Amino acid sequence: MEWSILFIIGCVILGATGEILFKVGVSRLGEFSLGSGAEILSNLAKMAGSPLILAGFLCYGIAAVMWIYALSRLDLSFAYPMYALMYAIIPVAAYVLLREQVPVGRWVGILFIILGVYIVFQFGRTVPV
């Protein structure tokens, strides 16, 4: 398998990991209010002090570098639909790791996303200009 495809898979995994870290981190901090400027600054300080949220940003940063590498070798019209796998992985991870309830309709939508990514992958890619 080509490195750029592996980098996209890495992006998807790191992006999903970052989202789970964000959710766990913010769940430990509690709900945020968008009231006054002082409240917003207080919320930002809480986020900046959360190791889980910072780890989520680190995952996003590494994923961004990998994404740029992949884009240097693949068409965006091919790569971006592959990135949509994150929309399938995150609900599965939320169900398994966070014990979130996922209704049947959402599972059906997830299957459509996976099917769409499979179709895009089967049509292959062209070399970027």
- What's the tally of helices? 6
Number of E-type strands: 0
Return residue spans where pLDDT drops below 50 for at least 5 consecutive residues.
none
Q: What is the approximate shape?
A: globular
Q: What is the alpha-carbon Rg in Å?
A: 17 Å
Structural class estimated from helices and strands: mainly alpha
Question: What is the distance, rounded to the nearest whole angstrom, between the alpha carbons of the first and last residues?
Answer: 21 Å
- Domains (count): 1
Strand content: under 5%
Percent of residues in helices comes to over 70%
Q: What's the rounded overall pLDDT mean?
A: 89
SSE order in H/E notation? HHHHHH
Q: Largest sheet, if any?
A: none
Q: Mind explaining what this structure looks like?
A:
The chain has 129 residues and is mainly α. The chain has one domain (3-122). 77% of the residues lie in helices and 0% in strands. The protein is globular and about 50 Å long. It starts with a helix and ends in a 7-residue tail after the last helix. The mean pLDDT is 89.
Brief characterization of the structure:
By secondary structure, this protein is an all-alpha fold. Helices cover 77% and strands 0% of the residues. It is globular.
Name the descriptors.
129 residues, 77% helix, mainly alpha
Strand-helix topology:
Elements: H1 3-29, H2 37-48, H3 51-71, H4 76-83, H5 86-97, H6 104-122
Helix pairs in contact: 1-3, 1-5
